[in-house]
Amino acid sequence: MRKQIALLAAGLLLAGCSAAPKTQSDATPSPSVAFDVEPVALDGSGHKMPWPKRAWVVGESSDRMKYVESQARPPGVVDPPAGQGYGRYYVQRLDWAQCGEFECAKMLAPLDWENPDGLAVTISLKRSAIDDPHGVLFVNPGGPGGSALDYVDQFGEELRYDIVGMDPRGSGKSTPVVCSTGEELDRYLDVDVSPDDSGEVAALIDAERRFATDCRKNSGALLDHVSTIDTAYDFDLARRLLGQEKFNFLGVSYGTLLGATYAELFPDSTGKVVLDSAVNLGPSEEVSQAVGFERNLSEFARWCASKTSCELGSDEQSVTKSIKGFLDSLDSNSLSSPDGRTLTQSRAVAGLLLFFYTGESFYDAAGEAISKAIAGDPTMIFQASDAMTGREPGGYSPLIAAASGIGCLDQPDSGLKGAFAQWSKQKAQAPVLGHLIGPDTLCPVWTSAPRPRIAFSGDTETPVLVLANTEDSATPYEQSVLANRIFKDSILVTRKAPGHGVFGSSRCADRIVADYFNESKIPETNLECAS
């Protein structure tokens, strides 16, 4: 699975705002094609954890390597706190300590929420506290695997809440999924992810199986308990320990799945929720990420053709041809960098996609990086690729391990055959990047059985606020329109601009978000923000 999301702070843009009709559609997925799911018993007392009422039938995940076992205990897997059953976790105290300008604490949660007397995981939290807050606002920047703790740093006091970031289990400074060494990840990420023959197909699948096995070997049972449903349970534990009646939340990208999942499982405890740049909340992608990136490739090509500083071509077609030709050439002739590394086609594609996440503000850098790489210097492309995959001096961040562990538990599949069938559709929909991004072959060979794919009811007491950029490549706009349809009485704020993530990039949208949280005001109809 090579769909890791790079999380970058966007610049603050001036924006105007104008009213637009509220989007309504009869195309909301019907629960009639989903199946009912029984709640999960938590302990012998008969208490049951909330569980999705309905789930989509989306695949049997027939090729998963569920026979791979491990007794590993990654950092943060510990014995449970004193006490019995579920209650032992609700009497713990959060001991906040200074961490720079903020406060940090750790919380224990059951490794397996069905077995509260078993091992525990350690969850890290960070708080930016203010005087006289309206309450607590949990925030998450996406990923899965992006640091919610670091995201807290980006908030001022415009939102009159204590801002709390909680790294989801499996990621960041919470108990992490542990997979491979830096050298092993280098080899894994150098594998050709867009195979052209049976030999390359076999090499790709073998690499995915090795990586999945390493994750199981080094993460043990944790790998079965890092789903978004598990993290929703952790959020509710944190809400209770912080003394909050309602769970208020702002999530970007994958963070929208966290918010939607909590609202589904704990509707009576759900307060104000902002879903910024929604991931797909339906049974399958209406528009694939590859299509989103293809749109941005065309947008970049038009931009480049209009700039004398961009030397890749004089019109959209010639710019696209230059980029495709360069990427195609790397399939058989990789490029050496000054530091001795080798730029493969897969690495170059990852670097290119990073520029498309960020929108037009990075187009100058994208043009320069591609031009230099064509001329023989891939340094800038490597820098972008490393940022995309979390490669750092001395190793890798937990991003890939977290994204893989969480994503594959959340994502039922139709096996390897289904992955390659989907890739064929993707190539037809996105002629340039659809092939190069490749099939999603990791989750079909993962070592954990997936959780149900929730068929969201969209029932909340407080209307949900949905934000979206029209030219978002990572989470195509259509996905936020779907979220707007799913959540009854929700409001969609559309920003007519490229880039991934709206909040913090638009004064128009930021004002709406502030009014929503601070004053409990929400627009009566969907709105458009000019930029």
Describe the 3D structure:
Belongs to the peptidase S33 family. One of its GO terms (molecular function) is hydrolase activity. Keywords: Hydrolase, Signal. The chain has 531 residues and is α/β, with parallel strands linked by helices. Among the domains are: 77-176 and 224-286 and 452-529, 3-Layer(aba) Sandwich (Rossmann fold); 287-396, no CATH class. It has 16 helices and 20 strands. The protein has helices at 87-90, 148-152, 182-190, 198-219, 228-241, 254-265, 289-305, 316-329, 345-358, 363-374, 379-389, 399-410, 415-429, 433-437, 477-486, 507-519; strands at residues 17-19, 34-36, 40-41, 48-49, 54-56, 97-99, 102-110, 120-128, 136-140, 162-166, 247-252, 270-276, 335-336, 342-343, 391-392, 395-396, 453-454, 465-471, 491-498, 527-529. An 11-stranded mixed beta sheet has the order 1-20-19-18-12-11-9-10-8-7-6, with helices on both faces. Strands 2-5-17 form a 3-stranded antiparallel beta sheet, with no helix packed on it. It starts with 16 loop residues before the first strand and ends with a strand. 51% of the residues are buried.
